[in-house]
Amino acid sequence: MRSRPDVWGDLLEPFLDTEFDRRHRAATLERLAAAGVDAAEAAAIRERVRPLMVAYNSVHWDWFHLGLADLLDAARSDLVPEELRIPAGDLRAFRAWATDIAARPDRLRFR
């Protein structure tokens, strides 16, 4: 069992049905940077998953937490319009990309 920062929880925070102040958003970016995801990469990742997560959370209206499990669920969920879902043939690569990001704190810790 591993204990590591919830990188995807921080990356998906903007898609929650909640508003965060500037101080909170800055703290989130600091945690991401410590986990190996700088602000520019965080913005790019968020842009990549934005349509998928907006559609997914428009059904759930989660205001507390979205994480890796939610991202992977949204990737093929019937709750998300078909054109936004990750195609079945791309799902393995998408999952590998997402889990690689989640595991970055481990790689930083064991350098």
Please tell me about this protein's structure.
The protein is mainly alpha-helical. It is built from six helices and no strands. α4 runs antiparallel to α5 (91-102). It is globular, with a radius of gyration of 14 Å.
Strand-residue proportion: under 5%
Element string (H = helix, E = strand): HHHHHH
Q: Can you summarize the main beta sheet?
A: none
Structural class: mainly alpha
The proportion of residues forming helix, as a percent range, comes to 55-70%
Distance between the termini: 19 Å
Regions with little confidence, pLDDT below 50 for 5+ residues: none
| General form | globular
Radius of gyration: 14 Å
Number of helices: 6
| Number of extended strands | 0
Multimeric state:
single chain
Instruction: Give the averaged pLDDT, no decimals.
Output: 93
Structural descriptors:
single chain, 111 residues, mainly alpha, 6 helices
Structure in a nutshell:
This protein has helices at 7-11, 22-34, 39-60, 68-76, 91-102, 104-109. The protein has 111 residues and is mostly helical.
Question: What is the topological layout?
Answer:
Elements: H1 7-11, H2 22-34, H3 39-60, H4 68-76, H5 91-102, H6 104-109
